[in-house]
Automatic annotation (TrEMBL):
GO biological process, one term: amino acid transport
UniProt-recorded name of the protein: Inner-membrane translocator
Source organism per UniProt: Thermofilum adornatum 1505
Keyword Zinc-finger listed: no
Transmembrane segments: 6-28, 40-57, 63-82, 89-109, 141-163, 192-215, 269-288
Amino acid sequence: MAMDLLVDAVVYGNLLSLLSIGLSLTLLTTRVSNFAHGDFATVGIYVAYTMSVLFGANPYLFLPFSFVGGLLLGFLVYRVVFEPLRGKASLVTLMIVSMALDFILRYSVQIYADVLQRSLGVYTRGIVFKDVNVNFLGSTLPGLLVISSAVAWLFLLLLYLFLYKTKVGIAMRAVIENPSLSEALGINVKRVYALSWMLSASFASVAGVFLPFRITVNPDTGFSILLSIFAAVTLGGLESLLGSIVGAYIIAFSETVGVYYLSQIGLSTAYRPAISFITLALVLLLYPRGLAGLWSKR
């Protein structure tokens, strides 16, 4: 049982870290608390599901399609919604706009699910993906554990190399520090913002592909995990990518273990979201700036 809990917590931490790092990127660059972030994951789910139905193959094979779908969606959202508001709307207005975007995306996926169900004759709600076993170092492990861990840490490594070893990544960090000065120095801030939204949505979209291997999903699934994503980012320190990753694993472990013990004493697992925020409150009482305050000098 302890091993099952550990596996479940690691898998959930992998997914939550991809989702949290994406939310942090848009928060750091464009200062938007994006309430539609969970819907990017839902889009990734339905891209992989549609492809797996059409080609009759395992959804893992369509991770690249969900990644590309996320890139396109992030670009579209930024250019159509947030770029026209850049420099004109307050942070509160941007937040409310993202809430409106959440409704638009969520109900768009609902419509898409209806169309898919009628055209292909398949269930489009209550979706569960069947996992495979993977032989790893002589042991048979759940494919979800191995593949989600490999993908999550590969993406995080690539993001680190992008931010610290490429000119575009260094430009993005400069924009995060001081967008006005960066623009004066010739950095195309508009392009950097668009790129951050593309990366944010693609990370979330890839994370979404793993969700049906773990839970039953529907067009509202992205919204249902939004609180946990925000809790992880806030716990990490709001403006720290590393903090978001650490916060994601802490929230994942606390939720997984907390739900297990709630079920053991006969309480409903519907209290799961409360566990995230109790954990968040306890950490913020000790470290008001979040976990990033432990290593940041700012």
